[in-house]
Specification:
The complex is a heterodimer.
Chain A (H helix, E strand, L loop, with lengths): L3 E4 L2 E5 L4 E7 L7 E6 L6 E6 L5 E4 L2 E6 L4 E6 L8 E9 L3 E4 L3 E6 L1
Chain B lengths: L3 E3 L3 E4 L5 E7 L5 E8 L3 E10 L2 E4 L6 E7 L2 E6 L8 E8 L13 E2 L3 E5 L1
Parallel strand pairs in B: 2-11
Antiparallel strand pairs in B: 1-3, 3-8, 4-5, 4-9, 5-6, 7-8, 9-10, 9-11
Classes of the chains: A mainly beta, B mainly beta.
Chain lengths: 111, 118
């Protein structure tokens, strides 16, 4: 199945808190897992990506945790800031550069 | 800096009209994509092109066609627009690279076209 299940659909976090977005998949043919960030009025932009043979990848305040056996992965945003307020999409790559996206999580970081 | 531009930010059309959405990228990318974005459904792939004149259907191709006559330009065509095609349409492009398993070439997105079909 070319599906990626993403939750929650919306998330409100206090400034300085940790934002956590979860995704799950079934298809073991997925071979790369990118996350995209979309601000209002803009197209999505690549935030961070991970291969399934890596359990964790960190870039600044953003960390992907990957659990291959459970077929789950998550995005953690540490020290969340109002500027992080955006919609986040998890995704999975399969075949020749095709990508299946989750439904998106609208994050709001309140001061 | 990679730039993907889309011909219109907002478009209003009537049911039954033929609609053209244009996308141009300036980075000599081989791959180009058309997605539609709807609340609660995320981004869904309509069509994908990996070379000039080459195309592949995505998850929801019904009611759409595409054209890629030049490497930098990828057009989405709604042959006879219907109200259920009211949506945000996003174009993206990426390098081919190896395309092999374990590698990922970032997709660069345009700002989107919000199409309303009345």
């Amino acid at each position: 199945q070319q599906q990626v299940k993403q939750s929650p659909q919306s998330l409100i976090v206090q400034k300085g808190g940790i934002s956590i977005i979860n995704c799950a998949y079934e298809n073991t043919a997925f071979d790369y897992f990118p996350w995209y960030q979309q601000f209002p009025g803009k197209g999505p932009a690549l935030l961070i990506a991970i291969r399934p043979d890596v359990s964790e990848k960190k870039e600044g305040r953003f960390t992907i945790s990957f659990n291959k056996s459970a077929k789950q992965f998550s995005l953690h945003i540490m020290d969340s800031q109002p500027g992080d307020s955006a919609t986040y999409f998890c995704a999975a790559k399969w075949g020749y550069q095709k990508v299946t996206f989750g439904i998106g999580t609208k994050l709001q970081v309140i001061p | 800096d990679v730039k993907v531009t889309q011909s219109s930010r907002y478009l209003v059309k009537r049911t039954g009209e033929k609609v053209f959405l244009e996308c141009v990228q300036d980075m000599d990318h081989e791959n180009m994509f058309w997605y539609r974005q709807d609340p609660g459904l995320g981004l869904r792939l309509i069509y994908f092109s990996y070379d000039v004149k080459m195309k592949e259907k995505g998850d929801i191709p019904e009611g759409y066609s595409v054209s890629r006559e030049k490497k930098e330009r990828f057009s989405l065509i709604l042959e006879s627009a219907s109200t259920n095609q009211t949506s945000m349409y996003l174009c993206a492009s990426s390098f081919s690279g190896t395309g092999a398993g374990g590698s990922y070439n970032e997709q660069f997105f345009g700002p989107g076209t919000r199409l309303t079909v009345l």
